TrEMBL record:
Family, per entry: Belongs to the MoeA family.
Pathway(s) where this gene product acts: Cofactor biosynthesis; molybdopterin biosynthesis
Domain called MoaB/Mog: residue spans: 182-319
Gene (name only): glp
Gene3D superfamilies: MoaB/Mog-like domain, MoeA, C-terminal, domain IV, Molybdopterin biosynthesis moea protein, domain 2, Molybdopterin biosynthesis moea protein, domain 3
Superkingdom of source: Bacteria
Described purpose of this protein according to its UniProt entry: Catalyzes the insertion of molybdate into adenylated molybdopterin with the concomitant release of AMP.
SUPFAM superfamilies: MoeA C-terminal domain-like, MoeA N-terminal region -like, Molybdenum cofactor biosynthesis proteins
Reactions catalysed according to its record: adenylyl-molybdopterin + molybdate = Mo-molybdopterin + AMP + H(+)
Organism of derivation: Nguyenibacter vanlangensis
Enzyme Commission numbers on file: 2.10.1.1
Protein name: Molybdopterin molybdenumtransferase
Length: 409
């Protein structure tokens, strides 16, 4: 059986990102850049004051000096003239530095000498502390310079990037089209949630849960009608992927007589790359292609479906979205309870997370890890990763976790 990392490599080996489209900057949150974004101006665009105060020449502004106020320059209103010897110009945080001045004297270090401090001209300003040459000036381009790449290709756009792209003076952003991910659940027993459930039936939790995972991964989910355990029906509904970038199936992946997903999809051209991996939950995972569309066959047990979704579908959707960072990186934690030795399958244990007094993350596995138990999944903040054949581990031992809370999953 394939290892988890070999399976990830095979899935990610050959996925091409979707094409580009332009979106308005305000709508770009959660999208992925489809090109480099270069600044269209310097930031700041000019030398500006970092404080409310006065533009001065440092050599004039010694403690005890009195300066002539020759004008005012609010932010957005550059001063037309220059600061003369012995003079100053009233300015504010964000005001452009006037010609002739080399420093900013903050208003707390001044005393108005007759007339108000904000007089546009004619007043006199007493200096109460020496000014250091160049102080309180934000230099033009100190954040970034015109032409510089501020956001690289393949980067997820979050609020921070939105601010940066706006500062670089762009209204539109080239992003990858969100990949469309079709979801096909199979099983005679599954029924639409909210409907009367027939004898032997069970509410279909996989389809809406996987749709949520697709959204959290940056894709657009399309839930296909549920397929009964019938090869011809699976084949017919599988054709719903015509316009999709990927197909996720749930259920019918194992070895039982009615596990028909592979055979059904083979009727419409599925070429299987691999089936079965050394992982728990998720042993019967299947990967293949129908034409160019990648197909990930997830197990029917809902926890197995979601865990495989996190470990394999999420990185695949990120790759289709053009993201350069695909895999979810594990974090270091310590065990909050003893764990037995592991067998040959990489285990993914549902666990709660807390911080101990020293600030370390403590991951405590639920005692029952049945892959049909959704409540423990929802109550978990992380999955403890147990490598194949890991020895028994005691409380306090280091471990690696995949955090679910920070993935919005
Ligand atoms: N003899 C063996 N039996 C099983 C093996 C095995 O190696 N040998 N593997 C087990 C493992 S591991 C898993 S995981 C499951 C996966 O089976 P399938 O992918 O074929 O899934 P189903 O049989 O269709 O369903 C399993 C279970 O999950 C319920 N289910 C299915 N779909 C949904 C849905 N959309 N929403 C809610 N619940 C769903 C279904 O009713 C079953 O209870 O196979 C083991 N068996
Ligand atoms: O993948 Mo299965 O859920 O290990 O039981």
């Amino acid at each position: 059986m394939l290892s988890v990392s070999e399976a990830q490599e095979r899935i990610l080996a050959d996925l091409s990102p979707t094409g580009p489209e332009l979106v308005a900057l305000a709508d770009s949150w959660g999208r992925v850049t489809a090109g480099e974004i270069a600044a269209r101006l310097d930031n700041p665009p000019a030398d500006i004051s970092a404080m409310d105060g006065y533009a001065v020449r440092a050599e004039d502004a010694r403690a005890g000096a009195v300066l002539n106020l020759v004008g005012e320059s609010p932010a957005g209103h550059p001063f037309a003239g220059a600061v003369p010897e012995g003079g100053c110009v009233r300015l504010y945080t964000g005001s452009v530095m006037p010609a002739g001045a080399d420093s900013v004297l903050i208003q707390e270090n001044t005393i108005a000498q007759g007339g108000a401090q904000d007089d546009a001209g004619g007043g006199r300003i007493g200096v109460t502390a020496d000014v250091r040459a160049g102080q309180h000036i934000r230099r033009q381009g100190q954040d970034f310079a015109r032409g510089q790449v501020v956001v690289g290709q393949g980067r997820a756009i979050l609020a921070r990037e939105v601010g940066l792209i706006a500062a670089a003076n762009h209204a539109w952003v080239p992003v990858h089209r969100r990949p469309v991910v079709a979801i096909l659940s199979t099983g005679d027993e599954i029924a639409l949630p909210g409907n009367p459930i027939p004898p032997g039936g069970i509410a279909n939790s996989n389809a809406p849960m996987l749709a949520a995972l697709v959204r959290a991964s940056g894709g657009v989910p399309v839930i296909l009608p549920d397929a009964r355990d019938d090869e011809a029906e699976i084949a017919r509904l599988g054709q719903g992927i015509a316009r999709a970038d990927m197909l996720l199936t749930a259920g019918g992946a194992s070895v039982g007589r009615y596990d028909l997903v592979q055979r059904g999809l083979e009727r419409i051209g599925l070429a299987v790359d691999f089936w079965k991996i050394a992982m728990r939950p998720g042993k019967p995972l299947m990967f293949g292609r129908i034409g160019t569309v990648p197909v990930l066959g997830l197990p029917g047990n809902p926890v197995a479906a979601l865990v495989c979704g996190i470990v394999f579908a999420l990185p695949a959707i990120r790759a289709l979205s053009g993201r350069s960072d695909r895999l979810v990186m594990p974090e270091q934690a310590v065990l909050g309870g003893d764990l037995p030795e592991n067998d040959q399958r990489a285990d993914h244990l549902r666990a709660t997370l807390r911080r101990d007094a020293g600030g370390a993350l403590v991951a405590t596995a639920f005692s029952r890890q049945d892959s049909a138990m959704l409540r423990t999944l929802a109550d978990s903040q992380a999955l403890i990763l147990r490598p194949p054949h890991a020895p028994a581990a005691r409380t306090g031992a280091p471990c690696q976790v995949l955090r679910l809370d920070s993935l919005s999953i």
